[in-house]
């Protein structure tokens, strides 16, 4: 049997720095768990523009379509701010998401006990929190037509259109139900069926899909009420599925329940490939952090947790993903903190590579 394939696109800024630490973890699983990957590396974002004049070369795009999973660092930086929109680093990422048709964006909000004090919410509200928001990523109001700014009478009118087809709702709902089956079998669907027809259809289609998942307890909530409930008592949720716009807001809000941008992973999944695995792109939520790039200050945990998601959702290695998450939990409990996790405390932070080494040592200790 051939090894599963992984394409690494480290990108710009802190992307390569955090990816170096992920490589240590990947190597550890190869050496100690006999979990070997065929890893290839390529360019995306500003570094690809520097070399090829485009933020994503066609060959890289073709490779991304073939591998079992793509792991991406971050793209962008001030050096590229003045580039034409068509070749900006972010376009490389957008092209990947679009051409791989990654319609389900998974954003966990997970609270590591050692960081519960770090949240802006009370400790007992967030301690042990582990929820997953599934955001529809390829349709909805960010893409719907008509759109634009038009003249009407003697004023301008800005227009965007929320548009969802039945099949678009069906497929993201299925992703969410599949996920719920692997977790606590609880799914809450959020829309605004009270004021939006697209929300009415959303609720109908999700309810129809639920018939294929009788074990999953489905509930519906208006998205504004959902936002309140997320702040009030987030632990009532397991998996949440929602559209592109509401998902953008709710996932950012939920993520911050748990602390730093340096801790947040994500997965974007598409349709199953011939081997049954979904097309998949894993990446930290954060950007290229030019303010700290090149200084060894970046927190690699968001990117390491993104690899843990790859283990779970692309490679059927849920137990090994849990092992990795527990190693991170241990490192945090032992007091390791990169600068972003220290807040106003006057403690000395560990560097990016010290954090990576500590995670590998904790993995060793798990055997
Ligand atoms: P950012 O996420 O890069 O940084 C925001 C703040 O969080 C900064 O103070 C940064 O130092 C800190 N931060 C981010 N990740 C961290 C980590 N792992 N460890 C410690 N601190 C961390 O967002 P910003 O500043 O808005 O954008 C910077 C560049 O990144 C821009 O060019 C932007 O377009 C790009 N970007 C790329 C994304 C991607 O590749 N997916 C997402 C967001 C922004
Ligand atoms: Mg956002």
From TrEMBL:
Cofactor(s) demanded? Mn(2+); Mg(2+)
Q: According to its UniProt entry, what is the function of this protein?
A: Catalyzes the oxidation of 3-carboxy-2-hydroxy-4-methylpentanoate (3-isopropylmalate) to 3-carboxy-4-methyl-2-oxopentanoate. The product decarboxylates to 4-methyl-2 oxopentanoate.
- Classification via InterPro entries: IsoCit/isopropylmalate_DH_CS, IsoPropMal-DH-like_dom, Isopropylmalate_DH
Q: Keywords for this entry?
A: Amino-acid biosynthesis, Branched-chain amino acid biosynthesis, Cytoplasm, Leucine biosynthesis, Magnesium, Manganese, Metal-binding, NAD, Oxidoreductase
Query: What is the annotated quaternary arrangement, including any partners?
Result: Homodimer.
Q: What catalytic activity does the UniProt entry give for this protein?
A: (2R,3S)-3-isopropylmalate + NAD(+) = 4-methyl-2-oxopentanoate + CO2 + NADH
Kindly state what the record says about how the cofactor is bound: Binds 1 Mg(2+) or Mn(2+) ion per subunit.
Report a single Gene Ontology molecular function.
3-isopropylmalate dehydrogenase activity
| PANTHER family recorded | 3-ISOPROPYLMALATE DEHYDROGENASE
State the protein's name: 3-isopropylmalate dehydrogenase
Q: Which gene encodes it?
A: leuB
According to UniProt, this protein's pathway is: Amino-acid biosynthesis; L-leucine biosynthesis; L-leucine from 3-methyl-2-oxobutanoate: step 3/4
One GO CC term on file: cytosol
The scientific name of the source species is Tropicibacter naphthalenivorans
Main location (coarse class): cytoplasm
Q: Which PROSITE patterns match?
A: IDH_IMDH
- Site positions (Important for catalysis): 142, 192
Q: Which GO terms describe its biological process?
A: L-leucine biosynthetic process
EC identifiers of the protein: 1.1.1.85
């Amino acid at each position: 049997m051939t090894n599963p394939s992984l394409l690494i696109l480290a990108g710009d800024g802190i992307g390569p720095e955090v990816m170096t630490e992920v490589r240590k973890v990947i190597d550890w699983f190869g050496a100690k768990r006999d979990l070997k990957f065929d890893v290839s590396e390529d360019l995306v974002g500003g570094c690809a523009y520097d070399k090829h004049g485009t933020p994503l070369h066609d060959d890289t795009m073709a490779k991304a379509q073939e591998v079992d999973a793509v792991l991406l660092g971050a793209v962008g930086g001030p050096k590229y701010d003045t580039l034409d929109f068509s070749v900006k680093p972010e376009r490389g990422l957008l092209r990947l998401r679009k051409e791989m048709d990654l319609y389900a964006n998974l954003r966990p909000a997970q609270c590591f006990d050692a960081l519960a004090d770090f949240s802006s919410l009370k400790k007992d509200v967030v301690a042990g929190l582990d929820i997953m928001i599934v955001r529809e990523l390829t349709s909805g109001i960010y893409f719907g037509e008509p759109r634009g700014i038009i003249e009407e009478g003697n004023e301008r009118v800005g227009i965007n259109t929320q548009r969802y087809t039945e099949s678009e709702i069906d497929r993201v709902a299925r992703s969410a139900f599949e996920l719920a089956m692997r977790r606590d079998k609880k799914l809450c669907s959020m829309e605004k069926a009270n004021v939006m027809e697209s929300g009415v259809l959303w609720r109908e289609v999700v309810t129809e899909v639920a018939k294929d998942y009788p074990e999953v307890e489905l509930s519906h909530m208006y998205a504004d009420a959902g936002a309140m409930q997320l702040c009030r008592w987030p632990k009532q949720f397991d998996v949440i599925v929602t559209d592109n716009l509401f998902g953008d807001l709710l996932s950012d809000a939920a993520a911050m329940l748990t602390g730093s941008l340096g801790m947040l992973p994500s997965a974007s999944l598409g349709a199953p490939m011939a081997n049954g695995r979904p097309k998949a792109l894993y990446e930290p939520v954060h950007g290229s952090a030019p303010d700290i790039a090149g200084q060894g200050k970046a927190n690699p945990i968001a990117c390491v947790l993104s690899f843990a998601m790859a283990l779970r959702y692309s490679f059927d290695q849920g137990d090994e993903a849990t092992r990795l998450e527990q190693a991170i939990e241990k490192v945090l409990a032992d007091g390791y903190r990169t600068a972003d996790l220290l807040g106003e405390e006057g403690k000395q932070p560990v560097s990016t590579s010290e954090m990576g080494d500590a995670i590998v040592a904790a993995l060793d200790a798990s055997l």
